[in-house]
Write a structure and sequence with these properties.
The structure holds 2 protein chains of 2 kinds. Chain A is about 15% helix and about 35% strand. Chain A is an alpha+beta fold. Chain B folds into 2 domains: about 1-75, 3-Layer(aba) Sandwich (Glutaredoxin); about 85-190, Glutathione S-transferase Yfyf (Class Pi), Chain A, domain 2 (Up-down Bundle), CATH 1.20.1050.10. Chain B has 7 helices and 4 strands; from the N terminus they run βαβαββααααα. In chain B, helix 4 packs antiparallel against helix 5 (about 120-145). Classes of the chains: A alpha+beta, B alpha+beta. The interface of A and B includes residues 18, 120 and 221 of A.
Chain lengths: ~280, ~220
């Protein structure tokens, strides 16, 4: 049974550049949907004869099974005209949609999963950072996250200490702001938009808005796909399949503060599709 | 030598892996395979009418079949990774290179359907993939009984490299490797080779990496 809170959220269901006029069947929260492109520029989504609400944003088509009480979030930094906006493309992952987001929020795995790229086994320390649930916007934020990275971005020449900010504006979406190697003071924006197909299957649509004058678009896509596919093989082997929200189930450490806040925020809103409420 | 490459392509990875094992430098030219489908666009079709990657360009030579590319790289580095002169070894080597296409079609096909939304009959691809894995498992088991770690002898050849990536990534197509102990030991041997490189889904052997804390401060 899908919780109503999750039904009222927005979810990505396709790249605007890749929609098919004939329609493409998909799933959303376990329900069959069909996503239609349109030559006249008005794509639509249907579910059991119902036409669902749609929003076009960040290069993707978004929809909701319920009645969203607020507009899809925005990423004002991404609108800067000099940024390159990159559709990375879909990757299907056999994991809980909430687990996909939680993994994206974690930095402690960098040295071991993204070895010599986002982390180095010789530098596994996660220094103290700040996490809060910002009530005025109803989002989870982690700031002042710092990490040593051998190759932080496609545009990074060598190892640097990268600063990160994480933001969870919707139950299955996370936005990461990170130091932008060619432009000190600016932030690269990397987002993970997750379409929950079922409680243990999701389509992940990574997306980026970067300042990068040097790299070719394909290099940027490949870099992000490389990173995400390294995550995928870990995500598919996590146990339990669904994200545990019972505090008795796991013992977090200081490095897991973002995850703890994310789980608490999910629970507060009854965003529990893909979660395990009671320790099994 | 220019390799038209895609970071998530097991066939491109074969070439990158062998080049690394041989110490042969490659100039990589990234191809936007997904989501861009650049391999089906005019520039690459002119180079390879089959619309596939990898493509290796070395001067006037253009190679579009991964087994041919592996043979070319190996031959340039003294032929140690080729089959040698014995007729049976040459034939068995060729047999496994041909067999690797079955892995590409079945396991690779299942992977593209499961992971990147490609069209295909998943159940049929998985059935063919499992049949190929069982055949490989049986052959590697016999090799191991005879004291041989690899497909045609006790040292690796390009046949091992041709078969390795799609096998290692079978779980991406929802085909578990748990039932195949000989395959897993063989994959472990390949991952232990000096110069081994990883690709997403195929990990390096962290357990054998040097202990980062082992250095004694001077």
């Amino acid at each position: 049974m899908t919780s109503h809170a999750m039904r009222d959220a927005w979810y990505p269901v396709g790249l605007l550049s890749g929609l098919s006029e004939g329609g493409k069947d998909s799933l959303l929260l376990g329900e069959n949907i069909t996503v239609f492109g349109s030559a006249t520029g008005a794509p639509s989504v249907e579910c059991s004869g119902r036409t669902l609400p749609v929003v076009r944003r960040f290069g993707h088509l978004w929809t909701s099974l319920g009645t969203p009480d607020k507009d899809l979030f925005t990423i004002p930094e991404a609108d800067h005209p000099e940024r390159v906006r990159v559709d990375v493309g879909v990757v299907r992952v056999k994991c809980s949609p909430l687990r996909a987001v939680e993994n994206f929020l974690d930095i402690a795995h960098f040295p071991f999963v993204h070895t010599d790229i986002l982390g180095a086994e010789s530098h596994p320390e996660v220094s103290e950072y700040k996490v809060e649930i910002r009530d005025e916007v109803d989002e989870v934020w982690a700031t002042k996250v710092e990490f040593f990275q051998p190759q932080a971005a496609r545009s990074a020449g060598g190892g640097i200490t990268t600063e990160y900010m994480y933001r969870v504006p919707a139950p299955t979406c996370a936005v990461l702001y990170k130091t932008c190697p060619p432009r000190p003071g600016a932030w690269d924006v990397i987002a993970l938009f997750v379409q929950p197909l079922t409680e243990d299957l999701c389509d992940v649509w990574p997306w980026m808005a970067l300042f990068d004058d040097e790299s070719a678009l394909t290099d940027l896509i490949h870099f992000q796909q490389l990173i995400f596919l390294q995550d995928r093989s870990i995500l598919e082997n996590q146990i339990p399949k669904r994200l545990p929200l019972d505090p008795a189930k796991e013992t977090p450490t200081r490095a897991d503060l973002t995850s703890v806040a994310y789980r608490r925020w999910l629970k507060r809103h009854n965003f529990t599709y893909g979660a395990q409420l009671v320790a099994g | 030598m220019i390799l038209y490459d895609y970071i998530l392509s097991p066939s491109c990875y074969k070439v990158r892996l062998l080049a690394s094992l041989l110490g042969a430098p490659l100039d990589l030219r990234p191809v936007d395979f997904h989501p861009g489908r650049e391999h089906k666009a005019a520039e690459l079709l002119a180079l390879n009418p089959a619309g596939s990657i990898p493509i290796l360009v070395d001067g006037d030579l253009v190679l579009t079949e991964s087994a041919a590319i592996l043979a070319y790289l190996a031959a340039q580095k003294g032929g140690y990774w080729l089959a040698g002169d014995a007729p049976a070894a040459i034939a068995r080597h060729q047999q496994w290179l041909d067999f690797s296409h079955r892995l590409t079609q079945a396991l690779g096909g299942a992977r593209l359907v499961e992971m990147l939304h490609f069209e295909g009959d998943l159940a049929a691809l998985q059935t063919r993939g499992v049949a190929a894995l069982r055949e490989l498992e049986a052959a590697l088991f016999v090799q191991r009984l005879g004291g041989q770690s690899y497909l045609i002898r006790d040292t690796p050849s390009i046949a091992d490299i041709a078969c390795f990536p799609y096998v290692a990534l079978a779980p991406d197509g929802s085909i578990p490797l748990d039932p195949y102990p000989s395959i897993r030991i063989w994959m472990r041997a390949i991952r232990a080779l000096p110069g081994f490189i990883e690709m997403p889904g195929i990990h390096r052997r962290h357990d054998l990496a040097p202990d980062p804390f082992a250095e004694v401060p001077s």
